[in-house]
Amino acid sequence: MKTFAILTVFLFAYALADDSNESKSLEEDDIKELAQLVKDKFNTTIIYDLLKLAKKAEEKCPDIEGKIEGAIDQILECITDIELGADTLCSLIRNNWEKCSKPGWDAVASCLPAESKDLPHLFGKVFFALVDQACNSTVEQILELLNPCGLKNNYETFPECKDVLKTFTSHKNELPSKSLVCSMLPKLKNCAEAHDKAGCENPITRQASNQFFEAVEDATKDDCDAINKP
Asked: Which one of 20, 117, 194, 200 is least enclosed by Cβ atoms within 10 Å?
């Protein structure tokens, strides 16, 4: 899901590029330079992987740019119509996220194979759940997500995480199906719980992470419960 989410953002950013060939060439060079910088600095090929996925998306859906440009126009129009001043940021997101983001998810979904078409809207639900939970959390709970105790142990050392890491590695160059994503959500939660429990002793720290997973579970319940039934 994380890879698909970043890919979606990448496609939106790419669609906003200038239409001239010179500008596109420059942007491609900039992205490749950024990809190399990230690889050298953080020892990860994630941007290269996303470039491959974006190329595949363009090959399978040649009019993806036109669809996303149209979606962006609808999103901007929706955002322009929002009245500012009386609402908090959390209220603005709660009241407008679904309707304003829908054109974007629809555009991306129209280019995906049948088994993955529900993923953009599923991601939208996950994103909204995370933001909504952040709005319902205290400052302390948010800050506990950054507690260094969560960095003490390597995820690869936990049995609960091995299957998750193996799945991510085997699917990093292809779009996952909705079924795969739904099946991974409980495993991700178990992995995170095992990792936090081993490194963080304070219950507030452990609960800070867990409540976000629970929010995602609730948000995806209607989509994933039937798929995850034994």
From this structure: 20
